[in-house]
Amino acid sequence: MDQLIKRMTQEPVWHKWVAANSTQAAKDGCISTTTKDGCISTTTKSGCIS
Amino acid sequence: MSTSAAHAPSAHAADRAPTAEELLGPTLHEEVVRHFSAEPDAPSAAVVRHRVRECLRYLYLVSRHPDRLGGLFLPVEQDIDEIWHYLILQTREYRELCEQRLPGGHFIHHRSISYGAYQEAPGRQTAAEEALRWIPLYTAEFGPFDADALPHWTIVRFLHDELHMSLTEISGLVDEAGTPDGPKAVPVRDHT
Q: Could you name the domain of life of the organism this protein comes from (chain B) (predicted)?
């Protein structure tokens, strides 16, 4: 494991690792592009909205 | 991510970790699969089921090992995070999942942070160790990574695609302490 950690922290490998995570992190906090789906309230299970 | 101290009886005692369907219940499980299968450009229902499975495995591990995994950067891909978001929005069911069905019995919080900001503070070595820390804990709980899990775990995919490690080699990585829980004291960080 120690050897693998050393390998991962080498400059070119580390940049690829950060990029691999940044691709997904960049989407954090984005709004959904899908259509609105039906929500239900926390107090009752009836009254859905489509 | 932060965690509470309250613990429910551990599902781990049953020898095997529960499946995603067992954790969510059949109704919510199918609802989640249906929701993500209906999205534009959705993969097959089989792939969606694997995503749901890996999302629940991620939550299971965080619940079971809050001391080692709490606050670490999300180790799974964005598609899995979207499923987590969906579950969080079903607030009643999500609380029940966290507090009654997952082994730690504590609410699992969510927070967004970029990896660039996350890895700045601890430095590369610690951030790399944190990313690798998931692997032995996963294999101890669920067995070796398979081809269906590979695309969804960022570190596994990275080791496979960039460092050309086989799934057998990846799954063979062992905790430095030699046990899934390990005696090393690892500070919990503030972010997921």
A: Bacteria
